[in-house]
Amino acid sequence: MSKERARRREERLREQAVLTAARAAEAERRERRAARRRALASWLPERSSRTGRPSGVIAERERRQRTTTVVLLVVLNVLVAMLTDGWAWPALSLVVSALAAPVLHTLLFRR
């Protein structure tokens, strides 16, 4: 009976050693990855805020205006794609809308 118990304990200890080694290897991989990320992040400029984008009334208004312009252009391109056959008109519509987006934005939201 004691030999059987000793054999089981030895087996448990062996399994624990394998799990401990696997955890140590995983922790080492995580630490190496974190070190690489820190090294790369040191090359980047610091962010001034947590979100990375300006906040405030003016910034919110500009975001809303940009979103409106993009939505209008997407709706226009979808309509052109649905109402025409082939690929030429939708492709031309994409190019023209990309070029005309600043003009449309200025006409819609004059400062």
From TrEMBL:
Domain of life: Bacteria
TM region positions: 67-83, 89-109
Keyword terms, alphabetized: Membrane, Transmembrane, Transmembrane helix
Protein name as annotated: Flp pilus assembly protein TadB
